Amino acid sequence: MDTRVDFPQASLAARSRASHLPRRWTSDRVTSLFMLALALPLAAALYEDTASMLPVLGGALVVALGWTLLFARLRGKAMNWHAVPTAILFALLAPAELPLWQVLLALSFGLVFGEQVFGGRGYSFLNPTVTALAFLYFSFPAASAGTVGSQLVALAVIPGALLLLATGLVSWRILTGFAAGLAGWIAVRGMGVPGIELLTPALVLGAVHLVADPVSAAATNTGRVVHGLLVGALVVILGAAGNGIGATPAIVFAALLGSIFAPLIDGLVIHLNVRRRRRRSWPTSIR
Question: Which class is domain 12-279?
């Protein structure tokens, strides 16, 4: 029965307490690996546009760590560094053309209402970066027309993605399903063969760090494939109706919808597998 939930697709906080997990999978080490995976795209983004990137990055780090420290004090818990990769990822995906106060307000909303109100990283079903960017696009429509990096940043994401895949911190099933859903729906709509122009920072960063986020994605093996297929198709649908398939709003809202449906997907997978197992185990006379 496909009810297995492998770390870290379940709650990071809860799974890190499980005695059967290797000691190397502490929450701090998981956070460090995600920061390492984002180091190269961050360096590429800073190389391309240091003047615009530094204020957003600095403000995002201050806001993210400030909210984390506040809620840690309110709960009487030790400070953690989960918000650092969130701040880096948000700075990479947020349009640099917007006023800084709008960007930091959106990040605050994402951190508080997308993560901290549920108990912190690992307890929420939403990705805080997705929540923050969705708030940004809803509240400030001009943000939808903003630009995010170049293909240099997109290519810089690949080594970090391979690191996360090799360590099992993101699921290959989700990424495979996402690619299949994206390419399949492009073919269904008769949009031709995807070209190199589809390789945008938003799409690559979004696939690895938003869609395949180990906390907000589906947790069952079959559910991960379905989750990836759903979000990949939604990116094409939303992108065709908006600013393009590779645009940040398309991947953000597709990832948001995927996170909302992830518990339902897992529930259906578990229900179907339990039902199939029961049918196999029941005596023929009872069927």
Answer: mainly alpha
